[in-house]
């Protein structure tokens, strides 16, 4: 089934909406955004086919921002948060996003998008999907993303800087099999086993030698992948002892 997530984001007023998460700001006096404040992003259709780089980046941004905690620390002002927001009288939800700094500007009553004289934050920086949708549909679309949320921040950071993030980021289950293979490869190397036995240890985890080497290269290139592999290796070694 084709599912659509409207991601035409609008800078908007919170008035008339029940905020489920996260701002503790009083936004009752926020005025509606003008047409000049609209930031249009393509409507996205997820069909089970491979996502485009633009589609995957947007969805990873939202998934990561859903899990960001609210913070009033200045060093966290530029961290993006997303939450689901319900118009009064409906069960449908908008995807709503803002930075911690924008939420602070509203909470502190900042005027003209300023916090303590620092411009760039405020109510005009809030984003909301133009069309509300069923919460289960939104969460289902995000759940269909690869199980590699540990890489979300790296992914959209690389993409937003004009780079090309890897499109073969391993899911946690594959990284777990890789970590098990790596443990056996290390044992085989220490014992002076033949190359055939090393390859057999890799294939026993459902990996080809080519894929194993690719995962080694990814772990060497990206700290978040390396950290996840290290975590799984430690965990699997502990379970094996």
Report on this structure.
The chain has 241 residues and is an alpha+beta fold. The chain has two domains: 3-160, no CATH class; 172-240, no CATH class. Helices cover 41% and strands 13% of the residues. The protein has a five-stranded antiparallel sheet with strand order 2-9-6-5-3. Helix 5 packs across helix 8 (223-240). The termini are far apart. Mean pLDDT is 76; it is low at 1-48.
Short description:
The chain has 241 residues and is of the alpha+beta class. It has helices spanning 53-66, 100-107, 135-143, 152-160, 172-191, 195-203, 209-221, 223-240, and strands at residues 3-5, 9-10, 17-19, 44-46, 80-87, 94-99, 114-115, 118-119, 127-129. Strand 5 (80-87) and strand 6 (94-99) form a beta hairpin.
Name some characteristics of this structure.
single chain; 241 residues; alpha+beta; 8 helices; elongated
Strand element count: 9
Question: What would the average pLDDT be, to the nearest integer?
Answer: 76
Helix content: 40-55%
Distance between the termini: 46 Å
Reported for the largest beta sheet, the result is: 5 strands, antiparallel
User: What are the secondary-structure elements, in order, as H or E?
Assistant: EEEEHEEHEEEHHHHHH
Evaluate the radius of gyration: 22 Å
Structural class: alpha+beta
Strand order of the largest sheet: 2-9-6-5-3
Set down the secondary structure blueprint.
Blueprint: E1 3-5, E2 9-10, E3 17-19, E4 44-46, H1 53-66, E5 80-87, E6 94-99, H2 100-107, E7 114-115, E8 118-119, E9 127-129, H3 135-143, H4 152-160, H5 172-191, H6 195-203, H7 209-221, H8 223-240
Antiparallel strand pairs: 1-4, 2-9, 3-5, 5-6, 6-9, 7-8
Helix pairs in contact: 1-4, 5-6, 5-8, 7-8
